Amino acid sequence: MVVLVVANSVVEMARVFPSAGSFYTYVSRAIGPRTGFVTGGLMFVAYALLVPAELALIGTYTHDILAGYGVQIHWTIISAVFAVLVVFLSLRGITGSLRTALALFGAEVVVIVLLSAVVVLAKGGAHGLSVLPLLPTESPNGLSGLALGMVFGILSFVGFEAATTLGEEVRLPARNVPRGIYLSLFFSSA
């Protein structure tokens, strides 16, 4: 529910100020240029740290999955391969990058829906379906397990606002950017 309130605020700003600067533009126009400058600087740092962090996560997760099948490739090599792929997609242009992102996002949604629908609902647990796993007292690692679950829950919504940076790239940005934000939020919460 909180994410929906934030999304609504972002959508309204995107309608009025369609801009590639997104939050920098919104804050500069709504509060003032100094605060907008600070927001822009913080976003620059966040985006600069996001790519290496995601590449490291991709590398370590893929390494762990492959290690389960007996394949040993160091995570830095896997991360480097994905970094080259990202650079290649970036150099191809925004259209190719967006199509690739949309296809991967669609595949992600399909996998999640299939896993939740088929595995969880059809199979259930050892004793069928139960709300027991949702109880905080059932966390195998206590409070740290709940904290980890909260991190995954919060991070599952990170990025729904990314469409705001396309305010100067799309046709009819006052309509299409809000639509993109709401759809990505809907699919990420589904």
- The parts where pLDDT drops under 50 for at least 5 residues are none
- The total count of helices amounts to 7
Mean pLDDT: 84
Instruction: Please outline the major beta sheet.
Output: none
Strand content is under 5%
Question: Can you characterise this structure?
Answer:
It is a single chain. The chain is an all-alpha fold. It has a domain at 1-30 and 131-190. The protein has helices spanning 2-16, 23-30, 33-68, 75-92, 94-123, 143-155, 173-189. Helix 2 packs antiparallel against helix 3 (33-68). The protein starts with a helix and ends with a helix.
List the keywords.
72% helix, 190 residues, mainly alpha
Give a short synopsis of this structure.
With 190 residues, the chain is mostly helical.
Summarize the SSE layout with pairings.
Layout: H1 2-16, H2 23-30, H3 33-68, H4 75-92, H5 94-123, H6 143-155, H7 173-189
